[in-house]
Amino acid sequence: MLVVLFGVIAVLLWYWWKRHPRSPPSFPGELPIIGHVIAMLGYRNDIWSFIKRVCDYSLENGGLIRLNVGSHIIYVVSDPNDTGVVASTCLEKGFFYEIGKDFVQKGLLTSDATTWKTHRKLLHPAFNQQVLNTFLNEMNIQARNLVSQLTAVAQRTSLGLEAKDQNIIDNNYANAIQEILNIFCYRGIHPWLYPPFIYKRTAWKKKEDDLIRDLKNMINTVIQKRRSDLKANNFVTNNGVDSITGRFKPVLDLLLHLADEEHAFTDDEIKEHLDTIVIASYDTTSTVLQTILLVLGTYPEVQERVYKEVQEVFQNSEDLSMLDLSKLVYLEAVIKEVLRVYSTVPIVSRKLDTDIVLPNYTLRAGSTCILSIYGLHLHPSWGPDVKEFKPERWLNPDTLPTNPNVYVPFSIGKRNCIGKQYAMMSLKTSLAHIVRKLHVSGDISNIKWKYELVLKPANPALMEFTIRY
Ligand code: HEM
């Protein structure tokens, strides 16, 4: 009886939406009641192809389309003005983020808008330019390390850990994060696993719980170690400023200060913030670095120009200063163009907590809106060469689109990336050191991409490094 009732309601809703005059066009393949579930499942072994198809369709249809998972509506927006309106009106994250909530709960990425506002303000000082300046020395050291090892991306995170503690993060922790992200992506493309009462009976949930337990134990060790180091050194703190050295604090020290002295965070919240920052920084930065190296290998003339600039800036010194970083203008253009053409985080999403009236359509409260970063980066306002990799476009502001919303690799609006300056600094430092010593060859056109919240190579990204003499 209940099933029949739900069925009738779903059909009514479906017809109502079909007739709604201000509803955006539907993605092909919609069926009564279940909406686009079958269309989604057709792509379950290649999530990126599905997301790309949907985002391309949004671009081809004026920048806004709709999908239905059952009666739940998902809009996909790639019009820069509409995206700006949604991002500034709605600060709650889309229902996909619920999938990660058992793990990172109140971390910035998944928290509800009210918690996010308070916590983001508290964490902000840890990403202040003055803190970042104190990391440059360590970034230089790690970049030199990377040049000699050229294995995985070795970089000190802004957690403020000693290198040996950082190793815990780099190895076991990072592997476990990778596994848990795979589980989240699997659940994301299998709608029948969305309801918690079904999901909690599956082997996936059991595996997720095991990983969460291991991850919490690992991060706990790091937190306790840092806490006792700080106590042993008797660091006196005041409003995030380390009164012994006069420096702002890296994020772990700031979190501990806020928890122990101001009681602003519980121990669980510290873990959730650290896990979030590792998730948000690790895959993104390492994938972008790998992609840029592949691009440099693919375009030898671009690599030579970067090499010349890097040589001029380094002169005879071993490391880069903050002033040096600001002189690496062409390298910065290359990084920006890679972030545009190969959108590392291709989509983010919001929950619409109110009806949004746009010039052409009305988006309904309670639905989800995917903001297509990938689509904005390919918006026609970039010009006819939008799909070409052309770092030069960044050297002449007159050739760039006037609407700033078409370039948002670190997301759009207030809920954007807190680590964007850190990311740019560490990318510039690593790349300058690598290009100065090594020549890279590779071919990005052979790469097939996969989506794991971050867009990354699905097949081994082969590169060859030769030493420059
Ligand atoms: C090139 C590298 C990076 C890219 C492309 C990137 C991109 C993004 C994007 C698109 C978001 C929004 C995610 C969403 O709404 O679902 C985000 C959020 C975030 N990122 Fe990054 N990120 C990068 C590096 C970093 C680094 C290095 C850190 C930390 C050191 C970091 C920390 C965060 C955090 C904590 C959030 C959540 C912010 C909030 O909601 O207040 N990211 N990032």
Automatic annotation (TrEMBL):
Q: How does it sit in the membrane?
A: Peripheral membrane protein
Q: Which cofactor does it need?
A: heme
Which residues participate in heme binding? 417
Record-annotated membrane-spanning stretches = none
Give the InterPro entries listed for this entry.
Cyt_P450 (IPR001128), Cyt_P450_CS (IPR017972), Cyt_P450_E_grp-I (IPR002401), Cyt_P450_sf (IPR036396), Cytochrome_P450_Monoox (IPR050196)
Q: Which PROSITE patterns match?
A: CYTOCHROME_P450
Q: Name one GO molecular function term.
A: heme binding
Q: What does this protein do?
A: May be involved in the metabolism of insect hormones and in the breakdown of synthetic insecticides.
What's this protein's family per the entry? Belongs to the cytochrome P450 family.
Q: What is the protein's name according to its record?
A: Cytochrome
